[in-house]
């Protein structure tokens, strides 16, 4: 399946991109993250949350959509 991955904030520095599409055959979000960690080792040491189709999900969630966003911590005011 083709998945679009969007990176925000400091995560764009770790990946050197804002968005990419990849072909991925895994089942879980955690498997996708392991794939990304091997591609972008600096990403493994960053703190972020995962959103699937604009909904925050835990990493043991089954992939069910075609859009994943990696969101760093944010502060509001």
Major sheet size, sense and barrel closure: 5 strands, mixed
Tally of structural domains: 1
**Treating each run of at least 4 consecutive H or I residues as one helix, how many helices?**
2
CATH level 1 name: Alpha Beta
Shape: globular
E-strand count: 5
User: What is the annotated CATH architecture?
Assistant: Roll
CATH superfamily: Beta-grasp domain
In angstroms, what is the radius of gyration? 12 Å
Structural class: alpha+beta
What is the CATH topology descriptor?
Answer: Ubiquitin-like (UB roll)
How far do the termini sit from each other? Answer: 39 Å
Describe the protein in words.
The chain is α+β, with helices and mostly antiparallel strands and 77 residues long. The protein has one domain (2-71): Roll (Ubiquitin-like (UB roll)), CATH 3.10.20. The chain has two helices and five strands. The chain has helices at residues 11-15, 29-39, and strands at residues 2-7, 19-23, 49-52, 55-57, 67-71. It has a five-stranded mixed β-sheet with strand order 2-1-5-3-4. The longest helix has 11 residues, at 29-39. The N and C termini lie far apart (39 Å). 12% of the residues are buried. The model has no long low-confidence stretch (mean pLDDT 93).
């Amino acid at each position: 399946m083709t998945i679009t991955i969007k990176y925000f904030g400091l995560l764009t520095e770790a990946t050197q991109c804002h968005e990419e599409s990849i072909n991925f055959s895994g089942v879980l979000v955690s498997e996708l993250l392991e794939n990304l960690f091997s591609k972008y080792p600096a990403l493994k040491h960053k703190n972020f949350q995962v959103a699937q189709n604009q909904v925050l999900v835990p990493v043991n969630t089954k992939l069910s959509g075609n859009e994943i966003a990696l969101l760093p911590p944010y502060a509001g005011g």
